[in-house]
Specification:
Strand content: 15-25%
CATH topology of the largest domain: Heat Shock Protein 90
Oligomer: single chain
CATH class of the largest domain: Alpha Beta
Number of helices: 8
CATH architecture of the largest domain: 2-Layer Sandwich
Order of helices and strands: HHEEHEEHHEHEEHEEHEE
Structural class: alpha+beta
Length: 406
């Protein structure tokens, strides 16, 4: 058997990768745009500060009261700033020569000046200094400035976000891969058990018929009867082989009546219900002439799984299973109802998941396999229409109708 989920999985991974790259690019672009705007704002503050100094250097305005202007401008500065003279010599007077420069308060004046001089070179590599000029255009002083703490944080924020996103995706991907491997393991285990279960009954019968033949080899009538039963079991084995051979490959679809196909399965179970020790009645109603493109071997398997599921759900002696087949516009609607124990609301989303089962001896593959057959091979839908605890469940299958008659 072959499961063709590789290309879909690869497409999903590529899609997630592209989406992740777009999100990362958008995050970096948006954050860097904010950084650029904040840097421009801080540059405008420095420029305003420089204009204030130029205003103060003008002899015509030197007697003006500029304390209010300078106090308001300087109070808004929350980033490193150093004021030098025209020879780029730094004043060690805090609030005038520099602001927001971290240093040890116990260092000497000479050490502070050396620190400020080295800081000037560092700030010059960050931003172009702004010149303070006299009215005749001569450079009076220069203002060196750096980025505020908020800009520095914003600058590194997108990269931290990307790192956390990568870690999250890695963890999510690992979890997804583990769940997928677990599901695949459940599928293989379930298919192995399903194979053993499907083959077990006819093989056991053949072994029994073989013993009967040995005991009655000289009784022609008994041999003839036994031969017919052997032929029936061999036909069943052939049908099982065809079913399993079609899983994983594209099955051939023919225009057939779902009513007729389901009726064959119902008749098969009707003959075996007395051996189950349950009083269960399986009935059918609806439109026998409506047709859909079906693979009869696989569709019979779906009907068998749904009947088995219903039989397992019926724990009383007055069991009822009913199939209703009818056409609605371009769809064929098939409802399978039982009066069993129902499905708890918390389990409805999991019943089609491989490996999920509420039965003690179940391996949780029947409904999962049925969903694959209906949706992947017949382009239909299968779902729980309604269910109530201790009242029963109704499954619904939707198939595209076919008007072709073969």
């Amino acid at each position: 058997m072959k499961y063709s989920s590789g290309p879909k999985s690869l497409n999903l991974k590529l899609t997630l990768l592209v989406i992740g790259a777009v999100i990362a690019f958008a995050t970096v672009y948006y954050t860097q745009s904010l950084v650029a705007k904040l840097q421009q704002r801080e540059k405008e503050i420095v420029q305003l500060y420089a204009n204030g100094l130029e205003f103060a250097a003008d002899p015509e305005t030197s007697n003006s009261d500029l304390s209010f202007i300078f106090n308001n401008i300087i109070s808004r500065i929350d980033f490193p700033i150093i004021l030098t003279d025209n020879k780029e010599q730094v004043s060690d007077k805090v609030g005038v020569g520099y602001k927001n420069i971290a240093h040890n308060p116990k260092i000497t004046a000479e050490q502070l000046k050396a620190l400020l001089q080295s800081k000037v070179k560092e700030l010059a590599s960050t931003h172009q200094p702004i010149d303070v000029r006299t009215p005749d255009g001569k450079i009076l002083s220069r203002i060196y400035f750096g980025d505020s703490e908020i800009i520095q944080r914003l600058r590194y924020y997108p990269y931290l976000q990307i790192i956390f996103a990568i870690l999250f995706i890695a963890i999510a991907y690992s979890s997804f891969s583990y769940i997928k491997r677990s599901e695949q393991s459940n599928i293989w285990v379930g298919m192995s058990k399903e194979t053993a279960h499907q083959l077990g009954t006819p093989i056991s019968s053949l072994m029994g018929w073989n013993e009967i033949l040995k005991m009655n080899y000289n009784n022609p009538d008994k041999v003839l009867d036994t031969s017919e039963e052997i032929e029936s079991d061999l036909s069943r084995l052939n049908k099982i082989t065809k079913r399993f051979s079609k899983i994983g490959s594209k099955p051939e679809l023919k225009s057939e009546s779902p009513f007729v196909v389901i009726e064959r399965v119902v008749n098969y179970f009707q003959r075996r219900l007395p051996h189950l020790g349950k009083s269960v009645v399986i009935t059918m109603s609806g439109e026998k002439e409506v047709k859909a493109n079906l693979n009869s071997e696989l569709f019979e398997w779906v009907a068998e799984n749904l009947i088995k599921n219903a039989l397992d759900a019926i724990e009383h002696k007055d069991g009822k299973i009913h199939f209703l087949i009818q056409k609605s516009k371009s769809k064929i609607e098939i409802e399978i109802s039982d009066n069993g124990k129902g499905i708890e609301s918390g389990n409805r989303k999991d019943i089609f998941r491989p490996g999920f089962s509420t039965k003690k001896r179940g391996w949780g593959l029947g409904l999962s396999l049925s969903k694959r057959i209906i949706e992947d091979y017949h382009r239909g839908k299968i779902f729980v229409k309604s269910s109530a605890v201790n009242s029963g469940t109704t499954f619904k299958i939707l198939l595209p109708a076919s008007e072709k008659i073969t």
